[in-house]
Amino acid sequence: MAITFRNYKLLCDFEPVSEFLRHNFVKYQQNGNIQQPYFEYAHTHPYFDHKMTHRFGIWEEKGEIVAVAAYEMRLGETFMMTKLGYEYMKPMMLEYSERELSKVVDGKKSLDVWLFDYETELREHLAERGYKKEYTGNITVFKYEKGFKECKLPEGFSVISLEDENDFKKINDVLWKGFDHGDEPDDDLDCRRLMQSGPHFRKDLTTIIKAPNGEYACFAGMWMDGVNDYAYLEPLATDPKYRRMGLATIALTEAMKKTQKYGATYCFGGNREFYQCIGFEVVCHREKWNKVW
């Protein structure tokens, strides 16, 4: 039966695409697809452009999704994801992405293509079409079989979850400052409420280090996809005045322990040196290739 094409419908296709990602995942991300929590977290991020998601492409065979082309946050980038065995579709998906997911800057089109270093044929195809690699970042995981590092919580600090307390103002403060946006957080608390609106967001897995004065010193969001045996960290931030106290390590470790109880055997971390220092391993690399035309 022929493969058919249609566009993404935000209100009804989020969960089918999520299922597609869950069931076409290979351990340690050796599959060319993004993790389902990555897709969901983006949909609840205040920077996500909901108005242009109708440009996402979906290809189906016998009613089953076999490929998806989508951006993470906004036009100008593409992730090309396929069912296992359908990777041959990516050159065609690239042409679609160039038409529908590119952005226009100073009268010229621009597209960032995200892929993994092991996708040799796709990398060669991008080079042939005039793309140039602009960025390489580590994909890191912490394997639970290694055991968790135990750190002592500083006196007066406590570990809580969002089930214990869910203060949007304090969350906004620690994420604003923790991501180095400045000392004066804005008052957009609705964006923090939005980020808890995902259908698979877990308050119990989100871990906070609370300071003696009641401030949230460190925030660690944690996700599971419900099918595969991994946890996914997003976001992790520490207020600058509470850094170098081991709080991020403690929050992340406590969050990973929670997911282990639900069947996770490893956790995806970030690209910064911090992760490798506490035992995360590099399993592959994500690359960004760009073309302007």
From TrEMBL:
Segments forming domain N-acetyltransferase: 158-293
Coiled-coil region(s): none
Entries under Pfam families matching the protein: Acetyltransf_1 (PF00583)
InterPro entries: Acyl_CoA_acyltransferase, GNAT_dom
SUPFAM superfamilies noted in UniProt: Acyl-CoA N-acyltransferases (Nat)
Listed name of the protein: GNAT family N-acetyltransferase
Organism annotation: Clostridium rhizosphaerae
